[in-house]
Design goal:
With 149 residues, the chain is of the alpha+beta class. Helix content is 37%, strand content 21%. A hairpin with a 4-residue loop joins strand 1 and strand 2 (11-14). The chain binds FE2/S2 (inorganic) cluster.
């Protein structure tokens, strides 16, 4: 049976091959989430709708896991306001199936990618301004129509 060693808190689990890392961690009392996300994390997986929250990022040493998907990599790199540098061993615990011995570090230090973050925020600012202008135009047209009635 594969061994999963958690570094913080130090704990070793022997799991069946194919076991989901998140489920194994939560079952054994390892805190994957920071306090805020412990309450508000959202991991939707309803048929075609999949929206992992990105709150259970862990650092894994060892080759005993399934491969990281592109979607998982995008989520680890940050979706909205902040982009992070993604080391190859950063994973979402809920997406990891254990196939061999691994060492897991919860709450790893994540490095912000300043260039990508700036580009992302610039894009979001343009989208926000565009939507604001559209709302203003609709409001002006609406007010004009109300005056004519
Ligand atoms: S539980 Fe939210 S991303 Fe894994």
């Amino acid at each position: 049976m594969p061994a999963v060693v958690f570094e913080n808190p130090r704990k070793t689990l022997n799991v069946l091959p194919g076991t989901n890392l998140r489920k194994a961690a939560l079952k054994s009392g390892v805190a994957l989430y920071k306090p805020f996300f412990r309450v508000f994390h959202l991991n939707l997986d309803i048929g075609p709708i999949q929206f992992p929250c990105g709150c259970d990022i862990v650092e894994i040493e060892g080759k005993g896991t399934n491969a990281r998907s592109e979607e998982e990599e995008k989520i680890v790199s940050g979706r909205f306001f902040t982009k992070r540098k993604v080391a190859p061993n950063l994973r979402l615990a809920c997406q990891v199936n254990v196939t061999g011995d691994i060492t897991v570090r919860t709450h790893p230090k994540l490095e912000v990618d300043a260039v990508e973050t700036k580009r992302q925020r610039g894009f979001l600012a343009v989208v926000f301004i565009f939507l604001l202008l559209m709302a203003l135009i609709v409001a002006v047209i609406g007010l004009d129509l109300v005056q004519k009635i």
